[in-house]
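help with this:

***
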Amino acid sequence: MSRIARPALAVAACVAILSMSACSSSSSTSSEDSTTHSAEAPVTNASEIPSDARTNLSNLSVGQCFQQPTDPADGLMIVDCSAPHWGEVYALAPIDAETLPGFEELNTMAFEACTPAFEEYVGTPYEESSLDATWYFPNASNWDAGEHVIACVAVPLEAPSLTQSVKDSNL
């Protein structure tokens, strides 16, 4: 798919996951409980993951790497960026609103925040990168719990996983 067509698909390519919403600028299939991305992370048995290695949207930090979620109840599994991983948080954008914006508005806010932040973090414009961008934003229950942030995440465009930090990688 062309780099120019991917952003146009972002508005239509979003899904609820991990008690939050996730959107991608690559093509995805929408459903209420799962998402299909162009790249999948190595699957790890959730029972082997220490609970302190899992987090949720409100605890993410720029530079954290994590595996692609396989079960919404398990949270995000944080891993060292030198180990195989699915995504790396490259920006956090606060949502400045009194009430939770609608899906389309959140997706637009995410696109407008995450696309320019991509080049600042990775070192290559999004349109020229070998990476893709996705974002997570809160659903209603997360919003009510005080999560008012969009997490921008760099993911592999074609490879199954990343094996290094994407910060200043020019990938």
User: Anything to note?
Assistant: Confidence is low (pLDDT under 50) at residues 1-52. The two ends are 18 Å apart (CA to CA). The first strand starts at residue 14 and ends at 17.
